[in-house]
Specification:
The protein has three domains: 92 residues, Immunoglobulins (Immunoglobulin-like, Sandwich); 115 residues, no CATH class; 45 residues, no CATH class. The two termini are 31 Å apart. It has six helices and 18 strands. Strands 1, 3, 4, 7, 8 and 9 form a six-stranded mixed beta sheet that branches. Strands 10-17-12-18 form a four-stranded mixed beta sheet, with no helix packed on it. It has a three-stranded antiparallel beta sheet with strand order 2-6-5, with no helix packed on it. By secondary structure, it is of the alpha+beta class. About 6% of the residues have low confidence.
Length: 345
C-alpha cells in the first residue's frame, strides 16, 4: 500500500493478510467500512507475496470513487476456500485531503511581509506562495506543537486483547491524554433482575445520601461500612486487571490492551494550516516567527538567485541577525511550555 493515500486516488495497490493459506479460494473479497460508517465490498484476487512466498494474501487495485471520503477506512479480508471459510483481522488506514495549503488573511500576510519592506517592495525573490510554504507553515507547526488544537474521541472496549486506534487525520501529530475512563463493572444495577437490584442496594450508593434506597437512612453508619466493603471488592478485582496504553507517534496509532470491558478517552493534539486557528494571545508571537523565517529564507536564497532588474541591495548577514532578534525571545518564552506530542497516559 502507498505510504500516503489521498482522496480520489485510484490505481493504489492494497494487499491484505488473510491470516492463513487461501490457495484455491473461490471468494476473495475485502470488506470496507468507510469513514462515514457506510460499507463496501471490493473483489480482490488471491496473492502470493514475493517477500515470504506465502499465498496468504488478497490483492486489490483501487478504482475511481473507492477513496471518495477523507478519514479512516477499515478493511477485513473475507474468503471462501475448498477447505475453510474465514476472515482476517481488521486493519485501518487514513485517506488524506488534497487541500494541503496554508490559509491566511491578506491582513496577516501583509503584516508578515512588512518585515521585508512590503508594500514598498513586493515579490522580492519570494512569492506569496513560497512565503506560505517555507515561512508560515513551519511557524504554525512550531506554534501548534506548544499550543495544539484538541479533539476528543471516546468509545468502549468490549473484548479482551489489544485494540489499535489510528490517528484520525494528517493534522493529528500526538496525544494530549489517553486513559481508561470507566471500568464497566457491576457497581450499578443495569437491569431489573431482582438479585442484581438486591446486590446493588446492599451498598445503597447513589448521588444522594441514602441506604437501601431510603433517603436519609443510615443507621450505625451502615452506608460507610458498605462503601468500605465495596472498596475491598474493587481492590480484589484490581489485582487481576490488566490495562496497558501505548502511544506510537511514529506509526500514528494508540493501542489499548485490557482483559476487561471498559471505556477509553483520547484527546488528540492537532495542528492547523489555517492561521485563524492561532489563539488571539499568541498571534503577535506567531507573526514574529513568520517574519524571522521570511528574513532567514530570503538570506539563504539571495546568494543563489540573481535578478538584474532589481535595483536593491540585500544584506544577508543583517537579515539573519534580524531573524534571530525576532525568533529568540519567542522561543525562550515558549520554552516553559511542553511540546505536545505525548503528555499524559
Amino acid at each position: 500500500m502507498a505510504d500516503k493515500i489521498y482522496v480520489d486516488d485510484w490505481g493504489t495497490e492494497i494487499i491484505v493478510d488473510a491470516g492463513g493459506d487461501i490457495t484455491g479460494a473461490t471468494t476473495s473479497n475485502l470488506l470496507i467500512t468507510n469513514p462515514d460508517g457506510t460499507t463496501d465490498t471490493w473483489v480482490g484476487t488471491v496473492y502470493t507475496h514475493p517477500d515470504d512466498g506465502l499465498t496468504n494474501y488478497i490483492r486489490y487495485v483501487s478504482v475511481v470513487d473507492d477513496f471518495d471520503q477523507v478519514g479512516i477506512y477499515s478493511i477485513i479480508a473475507d474468503f471462501v476456500t475448498p477447505s475453510w471459510t474465514g476472515s482476517g483481522n481488521p486493519i485501518t488506514f487514513t485517506v488524506f485531503a488534497l487541500n494541503d495549503f496554508i490559509t491566511i488573511s491578506d491582513m496577516h500576510l501583509n503584516q508578515i511581509k512588512s518585515a521585508i519592506a512590503f508594500p514598498s517592495v513586493d515579490n522580492v525573490i519570494l512569492t506569496d506562495d513560497e512565503i506560505k510554504d517555507f515561512c508560515i507553515r513551519p511557524a504554525l507547526r512550531d506554534y501548534f506543537t506548544k499550543f495544539p488544537k484538541k479533539a476528543v474521541l471516546t468509545g468502549s472496549l468490549t473484548t479482551s486483547g489489544e485494540v489499535e486506534i489510528a490517528f484520525p487525520d494528517d493534522l493529528t501529530f500526538g496525544v494530549v491524554d489517553a486513559r481508561i475512563t470507566d471500568k464497566l463493572s457491576n457497581d450499578s444495577a443495569n437491569t431489573g433482575n431482582f438479585w442484581e437490584l438486591a446486590s446493588f442496594n446492599k451498598y445503597g450508593l447513589s448521588a444522594r445520601k441514602r441506604t437501601y434506597g431510603i433517603e436519609g437512612y443510615n443507621p450505625n453508619f451502615l452506608r460507610q461500612q458498605k462503601i468500605t466493603e465495596m472498596q475491598a471488592e474493587r481492590s480484589v478485582r484490581d489485582n487481576v486487571e490488566a490495562i496497558r496504553i501505548k502511544v506510537d507517534t511514529d506509526n500514528s496509532v494508540v493501542s489499548f490492551f485490557t482483559n476487561q470491558t471498559c471505556k477509553y478517552f483520547i484527546e488528540w493534539a492537532k495542528w492547523s494550516r489555517n492561521f485563524d486557528d492561532v489563539k488571539f494571545q499568541r498571534i503577535n508571537d506567531v507573526i514574529k516567527l513568520c517574519q524571522a523565517n521570511v528574513k532567514e529564507q530570503l538570506a539563504d536564497t539571495v546568494g543563489l538567485v540573481t535578478n538584474a532588474s532589481l535595483d536593491i541591495t540585500i544584506n544577508a548577514d543583517e537579515l539573519r541577525s534580524q531573524a534571530s532578534e525576532l525568533r529568540d525571545p519567542i522561543i525562550e518564552k515558549w520554552a516553559e511550555f511542553p511540546d505536545m506530542t505525548l503528555i499524559n497516559i
